[in-house]
What does this fold into?
Amino acid sequence: MFEKITIFLLRISLGGLFFYSGITKIMNPDWSAAGYMAGAKTFASFFQLLSSPAYIGWVNLLNEWGLTILGAALILGLFVRWAAIGGVIIMMLYYFVILQFPHAGDHSYIVDEHIIYSLVLLYFIATKKSTAWGIDGLRGR
It folds into this structure.
């Protein structure tokens, strides 16, 4: 039972983090991912392409709504595995923007918060326990 409660709290808290991150981007009309991608060191040409005027509109849309939907799915326990797969992709994209091997950002050495979030999301993909006390869990009964 303790394991189930712990996984539930982890799913809800990570969902809240992603939901808040996405909804604040949606509510800020001046927000854009272009500034974040501008300093990319790893795959710089790929991220420069994504931040170009031709692509930045849909990149922003996918980023804002992807985070919001990911967060809502985790909070509700709905399509947890699919949401987690999308979350790992988002986190890896964020990670590669700041990776200047072996440093990940200003305060990390290889492993940063994006890797930790991805590992938790991978755990959600791997276990059915991640759907406890959620819509997926109710549908599975």
Remarks:
- Residues 65 and 118 are 18 Å apart (CA to CA).
- Strands lie at 99-100, 103-104.
